[in-house]
Amino acid sequence: MDMRILIVGAGGVGGSVVPIAARRSFFERIVVADYERSRAERVVDRAADARFSTARVDASDAAAVAELCSAERITHVLNAVDPRFVMPIFEGAFAAGANYLDMAMSLSRPHPERPHEQTGVKLGDEQFARAGDWEAAGRLALVGIGVEPGLSDVFARHAADRLFASIDEIGVRDGANLVVEGYDFAPSFSIWTTIEECLNPPVIWEEGRGWYTTAPFSEPETFDFPEGIGSVECVNVEHEEVVLIPRWVKAKRVTFKYGLGQEFIDVLRTLHKLGLDRTERVRVGGVEVAPRDVVAAVLPDPAGLGDRMRGRTCAGTWVRGTGTDGRPKEVYLYHVVDNEWSMREYGSQAVVWQTAINPVIALELLAEGAWSGTGVLGPEAFDATPFLDRLVAYGSPWGIRES
């Protein structure tokens, strides 16, 4: 099967997928689609590769996604837009007979009475509810295949398969020492997504208890990140790994903590207090607009910050338990990207580039048959070794630190 890929979204991550994929030969065509076709055209023009073309699509319209897939004979849809558009793209791909990949899953809804104790609708629940349909159709929805979720989940599978006899805890830990010159506040990733994952109740998984929630920014801990990043305070944040990992990897506890920094947390709390994190539309001067969309509009585009950014970002998975030799073991598997390198090599800032490389690797493994499956599957459902080997082959090696 010749692989024909539709990338929905030409923003930071979608735009970074293109120069990475342009160096590979596993696909026949990639169509880059965006609500603003001019954004897609700018991305494709920079690639200067005849295998790439552009289209306009409304990511909120499943029928429009399906129609574009059919017109372009798409075999695989890569969702590279905010998670609020997951379900229409997911459904549009299914209707068109295509396979599907994303880097963030369908949105959660907090428990109406006990949001900081019990889960309501969890991340990905809407997608997993359709798993039987995808399996029956013989097609694959590979969900959460960015960096976090994505590579972090691959690390969890690798640890379970190769490093541990039993696992007490898997904890994804993300930190960076990135600074953006000239801005008092400039998130390096989509602020829409950042608000969603940071202000929702974080989810924790424990053996015997299952999934439960806690308060945002709870359980602060100082984590020492490698390659010069150093110590960063990390707090609980809602994230897909906690939903995905326990489905395929046996562990007594699974957590996700993000190194946000106190200033970033204070800004998010202020946005929440003012109601500027809301997605419900309000009327302003005769126009209806969502406050969160306004926040996103007034902040700089993360994709355009690379020239002003300095430092490194680290994504990784900390695991403790009993090693294959029967002795206590604790490791941190990680991937670090230096912004100066990613800008020089690919023209992409470090955070979006680190996210974008992972679906490209997954697509290549699917094209070759090294990965295969049907249904709604997370990265943990596949052998980690081919993926980690390919990451090294792409020129961006991963590391491991044992305590």
Instruction: Point out poorly predicted stretches.
Output: none
Q: Please describe the biggest sheet, giving its number of strands, its sense, and whether it closes into a barrel.
A: 9 strands, mixed
Strand tally is 20
By secondary-structure content and strand pairing, the structural class works out as alpha/beta
What is the number of helices? 14
**So what's the overall shape?**
globular
Distance between the termini: 45 Å
Q: What number of domains? A: 2
Q: Can you give a write-up of this model?
A:
- This protein has 403 residues and is of the alpha/beta class.
- The protein folds into 2 domains: 4-142, 3-Layer(aba) Sandwich (Rossmann fold), CATH 3.40.50; 151-350 and 398-402, Dihydrodipicolinate Reductase, domain 2 (2-Layer Sandwich).
- It contains 14 helices and 20 strands.
- The strands form 4 sheets. Strands 7, 9, 10, 11, 12, 13, 17, 18 and 20 form a 9-stranded mixed beta sheet that branches. Strands 3-2-1-4-5-6-19 form a 7-stranded parallel beta sheet, sandwiched between helices. A two-stranded antiparallel sheet has the order 8-16.
- A hairpin with a 4-residue loop joins strand 11 (221-225) and strand 12 (230-236).
- The termini are far apart.
- The model has no long low-confidence stretch (mean pLDDT 95).
